[in-house]
Amino acid sequence: xxxxxxxxxxxxxxxxxxxxxxxxxxxxxxxxxxxxxxxxxxxxxxxxxxxxxxxxx
Length: 57
Known about the structure:
By secondary structure, this protein is mainly α. It is built from one helix and no strands. The chain is rod-shaped. Required for the export of heme to the periplasm for the biogenesis of c-type cytochromes. It is found in: Cell inner membrane.
């Protein structure tokens, strides 16, 4: 038999799992959007600063 506050504990765990799942989904979708944006910029000829072949002082 479950304790008196089992419903609260189950709801808290379910809510936490839902929030964590939503954050993971958001990160994945945002990562795809950033990747598309970077690919579009590279296709236009924009290069990253870390891609320099010459080093300045």
